[in-house]
C-alpha cells in the first residue's frame, strides 16, 4: 500500500519540478519552410499548383477564382450566392447525387466566396481520386444553378442576414468595413443585404459565373498523396478544355480607407444590454513586407490571451470577457482594429481603457523581454497552421489570390528573430493608426450617444435598417 506524501513535501516537489523546467534551456522553434510545389500554367491560362505529400493517403483539391464581393457592383451578395450555388448541381448530376457521392466516401466538399476570391474545395482519400476528382471538375466548370435549389439557398441567406444582426459581434466587422471604405468595392458587404440578396435571380448568378469563373482568372491547387506527373495529366485532361468567353476581367482599384477625421458610426440596437465596439483605421495588404513582424507586435497589444488589451480590459478591470486587436489584410490594403464588448453601463470606462492601453505602444513601447515572449509565441503558433494537406492548399490559395511570394513564408523565422525593440517602435509608428481613429459602436444609442461624441463626428444607423451604412 502506497503512503501519500505529506502536503508540504508534495508542494516542495512540485516547486522543484517547475524550477527545473524554467531553468532548462529553451529550444528554438524549428524553422518552417513551405514544402516544394510545382506551378504550371495551362494553354487556356489556368494556373495549377501541385504539392506532393505522402505522409497520409489523402488529397486536398481547391479551385480559387479571383472574384468576390468587390465584383458585386450594385448587387451586393451576388458573389456569395454564386459561390455557394456551385454546389447545387451540374448538367449531369443533381445536388442529391453530388452530396451522396462525397458523403458515401467520407469526403468533404465546400464552396463559398469572400471579399476578393471564391473557392470550391474538396478533401478525400487517395483511393477515391478517380471517382471524385472528375466530379469536382464538373462542379467547377458545369454548374447548372438549378432554379428551385437556388431559391431555397437564397431564402436561407436572407434569413441568415436577419439572424446575424441579432448578435452584434457577427456584423460589427461588416459595419466597420462599410464605414472605412464607403462606396468603394471594399465597402460592399460580402453577405449582401436583405433586399439585395432577395432580389437576385438565376440569370444574375449565371451572368456572374460567365464573367469571372474562367481559367485565366483561376487556379487549381492539389496537395496530398499523388505523383505530380500523373496528377498534372489528370488536371490537364479535366480542365484543359475549359474555355473563357469575352475579355478577361479588368484590374480595378478596390478602395482606400477614408480616415481624414475621427468618426464614429453608432449602430442603434434598442434592446442591447451590451456595447460592441471596434476602434482603428487603415492597415496593410496581405503581401506587405512587414506582415510577419507586425504579427509579433500585434501579439503584444492584442493578439493573445496575455496581451495588453486582454489583461487590462478583462483580467485587471473585469470590464469585458475579452479584448483583442488584429490587422485584417486584403489584396490591396487592409484594416486595423481593436475589438471588444462590454456591459452597457461600462461602455465609457471600457472605451477609455482601450484607448489608454493602445497609447502604451507610443508612451512606453515594447521592452526586450516582452518582445522575446511574443516572438516565441508567434514561432510556436505558426508551423501548426500549415501541417495538413488541407491547410497547405488553403495557404497556396491565399498566396495566389493575394499575390504573396513564398519568400514571406520561407523567411518567417528569420523575420521574427530579427525583430528588435527599435524595429518594433518603427513598425508601430509606420503602421498602427494613431490619429483620426475610426470607431464603430453597436448598442443602445440612447444610452451611449453622448459617449460616442467624445471620439469623433457621429453618424447613426438603426441595426434593423437594410444595409450596413
Automatic annotation (TrEMBL):
Residues 1-28 form the signal peptide. Keywords: Signal. This is Insulinase family protein. SUPFAM superfamilies: LuxS/MPP-like metallohydrolase (SSF63411). Residues 203-376 form the Peptidase M16 C-terminal domain. Residues 57-190 form the Peptidase M16 N-terminal domain. It comes from the Bacteria. The keyword Signal applies.
Amino acid at each position: 500500500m502506497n503512503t501519500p506524501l505529506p502536503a508540504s513535501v508534495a508542494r516542495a516537489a512540485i516547486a522543484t519540478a517547475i524550477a527545473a523546467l524554467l531553468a532548462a534551456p529553451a529550444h528554438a522553434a524549428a524553422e518552417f519552410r513551405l514544402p516544394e510545389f510545382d506551378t504550371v500554367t495551362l494553354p487556356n491560362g489556368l494556373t495549377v499548383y501541385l504539392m506532393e505529400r505522402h505522409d497520409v493517403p489523402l488529397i486536398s483539391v481547391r479551385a480559387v477564382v479571383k472574384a468576390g464581393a468587390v465584383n458585386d457592383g450594385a448587387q451586393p451578395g451576388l458573389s456569395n450566392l454564386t459561390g455557394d450555388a456551385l454546389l447545387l448541381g451540374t448538367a449531369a448530376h443533381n445536388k442529391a447525387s453530388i452530396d451522396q457521392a462525397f458523403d458515401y466516401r467520407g469526403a468533404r466538399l465546400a464552396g463559398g466566396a469572400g471579399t476578393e476570391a471564391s473557392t470550391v474545395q474538396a478533401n478525400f482519400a487517395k483511393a477515391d481520386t478517380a471517382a471524385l476528382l472528375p466530379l469536382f471538375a464538373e462542379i467547377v466548370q458545369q454548374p447548372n444553378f438549378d432554379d428551385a435549389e437556388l431559391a431555397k439557398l437564397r431564402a436561407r441567406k436572407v434569413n441568415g442576414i436577419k439572424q446575424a444582426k441579432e448578435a452584434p459581434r457577427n456584423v460589427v466587422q461588416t459595419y466597420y468595413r462599410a464605414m472605412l471604405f464607403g462606396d468603394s468595392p471594399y465597402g460592399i458587404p460580402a453577405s449582401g443585404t436583405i433586399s439585395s440578396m432577395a432580389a437576385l435571380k438565376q440569370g444574375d448568378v449565371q451572368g456572374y459565373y460567365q464573367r469571372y469563373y474562367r481559367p485565366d482568372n483561376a487556379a487549381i491547387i492539389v496537395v496530398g498523396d499523388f505523383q505530380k506527373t500523373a496528377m498534372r495529366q489528370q488536371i490537364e485532361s479535366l480542365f484543359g478544355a475549359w474555355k473563357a468567353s469575352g475579355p478577361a476581367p479588368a484590374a480595378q482599384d478596390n478602395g482606400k480607407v477614408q480616415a481624414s477625421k475621427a468618426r464614429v458610426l453608432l449602430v442603434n440596437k434598442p434592446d442591447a444590454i451590451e456595447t460592441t465596439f471596434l476602434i482603428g483605421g487603415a492597415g496593410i495588404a496581405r503581401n506587405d513586407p512587414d506582415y510577419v513582424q507586425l504579427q509579433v507586435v500585434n501579439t503584444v497589444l492584442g493578439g493573445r490571451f496575455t496581451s495588453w488589451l486582454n489583461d487590462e480590459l478583462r483580467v485587471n478591470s473585469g470590464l469585458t470577457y475579452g479584448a483583442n486587436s488584429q490587422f485584417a489584410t486584403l489584396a490591396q490594403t487592409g484594416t486595423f482594429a481593436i475589438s471588444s464588448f462590454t456591459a452597457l453601463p461600462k461602455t465609457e470606462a471600457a472605451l477609455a481603457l482601450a484607448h489608454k492601453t493602445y497609447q502604451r505602444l507610443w508612451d512606453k513601447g515594447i521592452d526586450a523581454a516582452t518582445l522575446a515572449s511574443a516572438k516565441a509565441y508567434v514561432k510556436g503558433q505558426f508551423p501548426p497552421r500549415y501541417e495538413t494537406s488541407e491547410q497547405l492548399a488553403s495557404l497556396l490559395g491565399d498566396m495566389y489570390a493575394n499575390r504573396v511570394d513564398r519568400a514571406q513564408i520561407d523567411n518567417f523565422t528569420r523575420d521574427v528573430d530579427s525583430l528588435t525593440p527599435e524595429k518594433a517602435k518603427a513598425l508601430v509608428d509606420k503602421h498602427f493608426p494613431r490619429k483620426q481613429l475610426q470607431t464603430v459602436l453597436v448598442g443602445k444609442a440612447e444610452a451611449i450617444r453622448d459617449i460616442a461624441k467624445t471620439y469623433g463626428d457621429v453618424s447613426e444607423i438603426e441595426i434593423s435598417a437594410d444595409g450596413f451604412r
